[in-house]
Specification:
The chain is an all-alpha fold. It has three helices and no strands.
């Protein structure tokens, strides 16, 4: 248990930030899942539309330190590559 008032405040701040980050992480995972489902369906147009919606969500999560920027870039790159393979 926190002993000082500043430590108690820090605990409160961490709890608030955790809730916000959980929401953002869920949004990130859902958007990636939608793209992967669109890729699995085999429809390039649907996949491109889902990717166009998901890319800003992924990069915003990186900006807000929910995921590391390299992780976000890797996810975007791999999804884009898989969508490009659909078009061939």
């Amino acid at each position: 248990m926190a002993n000082t008032s500043s430590a108690r405040k820090a605990t409160r701040k961490i709890a608030r930030k955790t809730e916000v980050n959980k929401t953002r992480r869920t949004l990130l995972r859902n958007s990636v899942r939608k793209v992967e489902e669109a890729i699995a369906s085999g429809d390039p147009k649907l996949a491109k539309a889902a990717f166009k919606a998901a890319e800003p969500v992924i990069m915003r999560a990186a900006q807000r330190n929910v995921v590391h920027k390299n992780t976000a870039s890797r996810k975007v790159s791999r999804l884009a590559h898989r969508i490009a393979k659909l078009g061939k």
